[in-house]
Amino acid sequence: MINLSKSLTFLDWWNPYAWLVVICLLIGYLLITGPLHKEFKGGEPVPTIQRFYFVLGLIVAGGALGSPLSTLGHHYLFSAHMLQQSLLYFVVPPLLWAGIPTWLFRSILPQAFRQKILPKITNAILAVFLFNGLLSFYHFPAIYDWIMSGEQPLAAVFAHTLLFLTAMQMWFVVTCPDPDLNQLSHLKKIGYVVLNGFLLYPACALIIFADNLIYKPFHAVQPWFPFLTPLGDQQLGGVIMKIMQEGVFGIALGILFSRWYRKERSDEQEE
């Protein structure tokens, strides 16, 4: 077995480039939503809680991509890989969208793009099936083994970038920062989130209930986890992704239901 503490350097454990990108985005966001907000059309002060969401999303992204979790997930533990993917696809996107004020969103994207192209890209049916379909396809053993083999480094970069972008697309339907592009009512969003949960079951079930190893890159679990066999690591990975997904979706459902209830009460009082 490889002794990770001796075989890998500090830069192998911590990716400074990922953190550099996070820090640059963080500084830019805090400047734009802070002292520079008056320079933008319709710019106004951003609530602290909204800024907190975006900052937290960046920190979680940095932790997923620039910490030892990334090295463990790409070379040693399937469960670490699934935790990393869960953070990037189910935690980071809703936090980032929730942290973008409407005026900033409209300033970044041209009006023609927002009005003509974005509604088609963010169509709920397209978004829900594209993300879940690609995520399930990615976890087919033959596809996954090829991507994670390292033979084509750009394949992994492309696959993970595509999955992140489609995750942002999927969450846009729920946490849309622009009221003009908010296509679904609260009740429809609740159904949309529930559908997302069901569509991921096949991929997770394949991993959780497999009675043999289905992914070649993770056949050797490191010795400092003596209680975790390679098969146990694989099954744990499926459990982690499903728990993370259900937990985040549960929070989203709670928020959506609360908003729907308040709107219904408000409409009744107006009558």
Automatic annotation (TrEMBL):
Keyword Membrane: yes
InterPro entries given in the database record: Caa3_assmbl_CtaG-rel
Top-level taxon in the UniProt lineage: Bacteria
Chief place where the protein resides: membrane
Compartments, record wording: Cell membrane
Keywords from the named record: Cell membrane, Membrane, Transmembrane, Transmembrane helix
One GO location term (cellular component): plasma membrane
Transmembrane segments: 13-32, 52-75, 87-109, 121-140, 152-173, 193-215, 235-257
Pfam families: Caa3_CtaG
Membrane protein topology class: Multi-pass membrane protein
Record protein name field: Cytochrome c oxidase assembly factor CtaG
Organism name: Paenibacillus validus
Lineage start: Bacteria, Bacillati, Bacillota, Bacilli, Bacillales
